[in-house]
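Good morning C.,

I know you're traveling, so I'll keep this short. The sequence:
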Amino acid sequence: MGTAIKIRQATDHDYEAIHALNELAVPHVNSISIEDLIHLHEQSISFGVAHLEGHVAGYLLALDQDGDYSSMNFQWFVRTYPVFTYVDRIVVSSEYRRRGIADLLYTHLITQIPDICPVLTCEVNTRPANPGSMAFHTTLGFSPVGEQTTEQGAKSVCMLARTLRP
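The tokens, ready to paste straight into the viewer:
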């Protein structure tokens, strides 16, 4: 029998582990300072953390359209959708992948989203490519809704959306 994965909201005690996990996932997610992580946590509608075997195995940070966030990708969604939930980042430790953690984090997020929210949004890098994330999000029902180049042309992203409510 395997160890149970526990999903809960992040606390300030998680910041160092989350930050370390985030930095190991660069360039698939952007690097972030602990101070910026704290700011995003304050803006978030959900900041789920997966615990497994006594470790932070993954996390998912999401904001709604009212978040105070200058990210070009977030601002693209602000211009495109009046009401949405935005997954800013989801990271699962390489040693804990293929155990359903990302699915559980998304399930946890969806329970946090207000009933009035019609769409869940995110972006996935196409340069540098992140085919694993693109395949995962496609299986979750996300579809491309746009694309954007960022970081003075160093990165390109595919903007994705999943309809939650008609």
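Safe travels,
E.
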